[in-house]
Design a protein that fits this description.
alpha+beta
Length: 111
Amino acid sequence: RCFGREKFDVLVATEVLEHVADWKRAITNFKNVLKPDGIIIITTRSKGFGYHGWPFDFWRYEIPDIERIFSDFTIEAAEKDPTMPGVFVRARKPRNFSWTPSVTKVRSTLK
């Protein structure tokens, strides 16, 4: 289903990103459907979190990965999960947002 550009004020993705094979495309879509000044909230797993492959489990993200992926947003919070390996991020899309290819330079890791 296609929602179109700049349709949502808030996007929440919890424990999703590590399960998406083409995470770059997912992030591109997340950024595009979010309205200017909109908020994105993501939680995802980091190195050290066990493989949980149903249906799939591809990636692990660290705070530097998240900071690079959202370098074109204003990161309001980027924190480690205090109870298990993972990352929380809250970022705001700038009003003058324009897509940059920086997302392709991230080296997220498989388990």
